[in-house]
Amino acid sequence: MADLARLVQDIATEMRDASDRGEVASYIPPLARVDPRQFGLCVVTAEGAVHSAGESEEPFSIQSISKVFALTQALGKVGDTLWRRVGREPSGTPFNSIVQLEREQGIPRNPFINAGALVVSDINLAGHAPREAIGELLRFTRYLADDDGIIIDEAVARAEQATGFRNIALANYMKAFGNIHHAPELTLGVYFHQCAIAMSCRQLAMAGRFLMHGGLHLPGGPRVVSAQRARRINALMLTCGHYDASGDFAFRVGLPGKSGVGGGILAIAPGKAAIAAWSPGLNANGNSMLGTLALERLAEATGWSVFNPG
Amino acid sequence: MADLARLVQDIATEMRDASDRGEVASYIPPLARVDPRQFGLCVVTAEGAVHSAGESEEPFSIQSISKVFALTQALGKVGDTLWRRVGREPSGTPFNSIVQLEREQGIPRNPFINAGALVVSDINLAGHAPREAIGELLRFTRYLADDDGIIIDEAVARAEQATGFRNIALANYMKAFGNIHHAPELTLGVYFHQCAIAMSCRQLAMAGRFLMHGGLHLPGGPRVVSAQRARRINALMLTCGHYDASGDFAFRVGLPGKSGVGGGILAIAPGKAAIAAWSPGLNANGNSMLGTLALERLAEATGWSVFNPG
Amino acid sequence: MADLARLVQDIATEMRDASDRGEVASYIPPLARVDPRQFGLCVVTAEGAVHSAGESEEPFSIQSISKVFALTQALGKVGDTLWRRVGREPSGTPFNSIVQLEREQGIPRNPFINAGALVVSDINLAGHAPREAIGELLRFTRYLADDDGIIIDEAVARAEQATGFRNIALANYMKAFGNIHHAPELTLGVYFHQCAIAMSCRQLAMAGRFLMHGGLHLPGGPRVVSAQRARRINALMLTCGHYDASGDFAFRVGLPGKSGVGGGILAIAPGKAAIAAWSPGLNANGNSMLGTLALERLAEATGWSVFNPG
Amino acid sequence: MADLARLVQDIATEMRDASDRGEVASYIPPLARVDPRQFGLCVVTAEGAVHSAGESEEPFSIQSISKVFALTQALGKVGDTLWRRVGREPSGTPFNSIVQLEREQGIPRNPFINAGALVVSDINLAGHAPREAIGELLRFTRYLADDDGIIIDEAVARAEQATGFRNIALANYMKAFGNIHHAPELTLGVYFHQCAIAMSCRQLAMAGRFLMHGGLHLPGGPRVVSAQRARRINALMLTCGHYDASGDFAFRVGLPGKSGVGGGILAIAPGKAAIAAWSPGLNANGNSMLGTLALERLAEATGWSVFNPG
User: Fold this and answer.
1) For chain B, how many structural domains are there in total?
2) What is the pLDDT of residues B201-255, one digit of tens each?
3) CB–CB contact C307 D231 (8 Å)
4) How close C15 comes to chain D (CA, Å)?
5) Is residue D309 part of a domain?
6) Are residues D32 and D154 in the same domain?
7) Do B155 and B231 sit in the same domain of this protein?
8) Which of A91, A98, A186 is the best residue to mutate to test the D interface, defined by the most D CB atoms within 10 Å of its own CB?
9) Do D72 and D186 fall into the same domain?
10) Which residues bind substrate (chains A, B, C, D) (predicted)?
11) Contact D172 A169 (CB under 8 A)
């Protein structure tokens, strides 16, 4: 599909020249040091074509995008009983809000806010050592991406751990309600390492393929999750994947997507493409400014929005 | 499509026999008196076929579903400047919450919660008499449905007006922030009448066709809204159409939808179908219990979820 | 007490020369037009001596200070059953907050925030015409002050009514919870007129005497309220009389007090003095900036704080 | 004062026979095991007379009452700069609420809610080892009470530490806002030990004398704090000393007081008495049910309410 290749290039070119690039996350030094001029885009189509542009091979900290893989892993472990401990409604308040937890007795609104992801980490821990749980997630992600080069950035993990007081507060707060089952510091250990997974746009788009293929690793290949579960993870990404700007992302882009403060976004066009965009500068809602814009351009040009007649 | 006709019948049969039907809205007598044993379903396909079952010709109070038509009308009047006065994020709190308005300075989170719909009514009022504004909306709805038999149930409108203290509070509260431009009682008059529009499942599904057809009244027919606007209204329905259970509806059904306390739900499968389901009993979130279940069955059987590979 | 007379004069002199006088309330024109350079102070001692300084004879809009007299009147009508409809805890949020009402099912936290005062007005209305209810309160206030010259400023009442959307919202919101028994517009009529009572510092201090004398109009005179009730009204003034700055007023001044956005403050030194201070400029919490400072000076110099060993 | 001795006895007799005694705090075993039938009362008058009744010599866990002594100690260290890190307004929400911290950027509303007390502990830690800080507070409390027998109940301290997830959450949450200066676990160590101080009613009433004497250890004795500071601590106790029931305590009792979940209450009648009441059963607000009732009886009979003409 020659047009798509050119489109990806054109979008990368537009983004390379953009003047307003947002603000790079500064809460930990390893993120604050990332060069804001970078932009990467990779589109993997249903047919398996890979179109990349910009710094699409540069690894970045996927941060909250890891919540998609961790949720998939946890659902594999405990199935729909997971929803007794985590809701599936948009949060309606900033992503680190603790207010909602008090009102709702320690049950986080969805698995893509920090509190919800901590419960998911607690499920994935499952009585093992944190090291094993994080190793398992890393192997799962490598499998999804067909790429053993994916690693955890230990400097990022250490920095998260040293400054993550708000997440420590969240984990202990939910522990007080009985919704964290392990010692909070163990659950937090899993969580901080999961956020520190580093991937390139190409690796990330590849890892997202199972959500494009209705739960299959590849068309005709082994099943990662059931079709229903793939659909539901996509639904959660659309309603909850961009913190308090999820509605805006659905409005502008119209695709299930999950963002991270490292500037990455994974977006899924079911049956059509798995897409990863990356640019370190964030908008006021904590989502990649150029990544969002690139996906808006791509969805507009391809008609891939799930809200189009198709 | 013989299978679809049978599917619609089968679903209606299952719903007719359901024992747990939820609770009929009781806040005004005309709604409280509705027989909870009723159920209707109507599916209009992209090809124009109409499949109905149950009490699909029985008019019911569409209530909040009117917010979809009113929003479409208001966007036609003021375009995207509307979004200066209304947000487009899920609310994260019960549908009548006033808390969020205080935190966000009188700007409602989205046009499908009551506060947002009141601002939309205020826009549609546009300096005219309430009677004219509501007449215009009624004509627009009749046009969308190709049905001049759609009327306003004056008994419902009067009952809303007599007991709608919470909506009166919302309107006056936003007036204090300057986000209601007319006298609150005029804006409320438009709003209460709009909620009292009565439609059957068939009329409602017909009125929803433009959202299935990418903004066209019919394929090849006149344009109601641009393709982008149709897509965006669908996106808002998916993220915000079921109050604080929007995430759950997306998770279970996977279609843009808008519910009303009269027990109706309008759902859109872009490019495939416009669907109306109705059953008066509501679940704990104020959405039709059997209407939701019927749509879940329909989406599962047809694969129409927007999150499917298609 | 020659020293007290001089002290009152000295304080008025200091306040006359103060450069930072706060901001005059601007939400209605009759208040916005008041000259911010004015300051008045009047101290009535237990022995009946009256010490005044500054513009102590100038009538001003007492606004929320009227809540003390209205509460006293309502307790006389319904006794402690009043506390089923109004709490007696500090509010912890700004004075016009509607959030707390949602959380606490339409029961205002105390009778000195607007919502609570609206319930008190609803009690005082008691099935009569608003005109009669407000006439009764005016007569009661004149009796307390021994002064028939106290009037209602109709221009203020009309302005309140024309712009009081937030209070209209509060009344309708509580009506939705069943905690306003009359038509909201009638209850609001009483409330808006009560806020528009105009009094001078001298009249206000005189009207506060019963709270200094343990509930007696004068020592040895007729009883207005029981000793217990006088004590309790004083307690409410201390914990709730200055909106979200009640703690600060207790900390700095140490006397039961009630402020109004007209810039007046009534303070009680039980057994020692009834005091009224007035200066139109308000601090960030909506309390008279110089009025508070004057009372702090007076309490410090006299040792009248209820927290002193005495 | 023979009458006072009898009054204290009579109150203890009434409380001994009370049937509704509230619920003993059950969140840690050492508190859950306390016999709910106990009641103690001790009144130390300005003249130095000590009147006791019931289990007035039985040590109990003073819990939050320690916040009074810790605040006094911290004010001695940093003076009024303390108020840059802690507010002095009633909280208006349950005592362990984290909501307010989010709204107010990590600044607790007052030093008597847990969050505020944690900041006070952080100030008292002042770069020392937790052991030293807590030793200093213990020595200060012994000095105030003239009693070297006061100790820390290590079993209580360990139990607090093992289950205090909510306090761990609070400390880390404030750390994220920069309002905890030490490592949270150190600050928490001080806090948990301070709560575990055990005192009898007699020891507690003795320790409260400086607040009755305007800041003097004894009349004519050395000064503990300035008269202004004593007054202000009393003011804070009255407005904030009983969590979300502070208004009710002021309304019913009319004295500055501080309660703890161990069932103790310290109350001050300035210039008249320092009082300690204890009964382990708590009311719905977490304050001693019989302790509050006993103080209400005492204040009514003696006329010691600060809101009385005196």
Assistant:
1) 2
2) 999 999 999 999 999 999 999 999 999 999 999 999 999 999 889 999 999 999 9
3) yes
4) 22
5) no
6) no
7) no
8) A98
9) yes
10) 64, 114, 160, 167, 191, 243, 261
11) yes
Spatial distance between the Cα atoms of D86 and D71, rounded to a whole number of angstroms:
11
Q: What are phi and psi of A230, to 5 degrees?
A: -60, -45
Helix (H) or strand (E) holding A52: strand A50-54
What pLDDT does D96 receive? 61
User: Is A207 found in the same domain as A150?
Assistant: no
A-B contacts at Cβ under 8 angstroms:
130
Instruction: Supply angle C-alpha B171, B174, B175, rounded to 5.
Output: 80
In a domain, A310, yes or no: no
Query: Looking at the partner chain, which of A98, A165, A168 has a beta carbon nearest the beta carbon of D102?
Result: A98
* pLDDT mean across residues, chain D: 96
What is the nearest CA distance from D29 to chain C, expressed in angstroms? 32
Nearest partner of A30 among A198, A235, A237, A257, judged by Cα:
A198
Closest Cα in chain D, distance from residue A167 (Å): 8
Task: Enumerate residues 6+ apart whose C-beta is below 8 A from D291.
Answer: D259, D263, D264, D265, D277, D278, D279
Q: What count of other Cβ atoms lies within 10 Å of the Cβ of residue A127?
A: 9
Rounded to whole angstroms, the Cα distance separating A148 from C53 reads 85
Does D243 participate in catalysis according to the annotation?
A: yes
C298 φ, ψ to 5°?
Answer: -65, -45
Q: What is the pLDDT of residue D95?
A: 55
Which residue in the list C67, C175, C258, C272 is annotated as catalytic?
C67
Cite the active site residues of A.
Answer: 64, 67, 191, 243, 261
| B215, part of any domain | yes
CB-CB neighbors (< 8 A) of D99 in chain A: 98-99, 102
From B197, B230, B261, give the residue that closes a domain.
B197
pLDDT value of position A2:
60
Query: Distance between CA C209 and CA C228 in Å, rounded?
Result: 15
Q: Are residues C112 and C184 in the same domain?
A: yes
What amino acid occupies position D55? E
Give the CATH number of the domain where residue B115 resides: 3.40.710.10
Say what angle helices B2-16 and B289-302 make with each other, to 10 degrees. Answer: 150
Q: Which pLDDT band holds residue B103 (cuts at 50, 70, 90)?
A: confident
Per residue, the 3-state secondary structure of chain C, as one string, reads CHHHHHHHHHHHHHHHCCCCCCEECCCCHHHHCCCCCCCEEEEEECCCCEEEEECCCCCEECHHHHHHHHHHHHHHHHHHHHHHCCCCCCCCCCCCCCHHHHHCCCCCCCCCCHHHHHHHHHHHHCCCCHHHHHHHHHHHHHHHHCCCCCEECHHHHHHHHHHCHHHHHHHHHHHHCCCCCCCHHHHHHHHHHHHCEEECHHHHHHHCHHHHCCCECCCCCCECCCHHHHHHHHHHHHHHCCHHHHHHHHHHCCCCEEECCCCEEEEEECCCEEEEEECCEECCCCCEHHHHHHHHHHHHHHCCCCCCCC
What tokens were used for C57?
A: 């004879």
Residues of C with a Cβ under 8 Å from any B Cβ are: 97-99, 102, 165-166, 168-173, 175-176, 184
My answer on whether B57 and B85 are in the same domain is: no
- Asked if residue D260 lies in contact with residue D249, where contact means CB atoms within 8 angstroms, the answer is no
Q: Which amino acid is at B8?
A: V
C274 and C208 inside one domain = yes
Please give the single-letter amino acid code of residue B177.
F
Of the partner residues D90, D231, D234, the one whose CB lies closest to the CB of residue C92: D90
Note down the domain range covering B178: 64-197
pTM, 2 dp: 0.94
The pLDDT of residue B97 is 72
C-beta atoms surrounding D184 within 10 Å: 24
The verdict on D193 and D77 lying in the same domain is yes
Domain boundary among A197, A218, A250: A197
Taking only the tens place, the pLDDT of each residue in C109-121 is 999 999 999 999 9
Of B169, B175, B176, the CB nearest to C173: B169
Residue B74 lies in a domain: yes
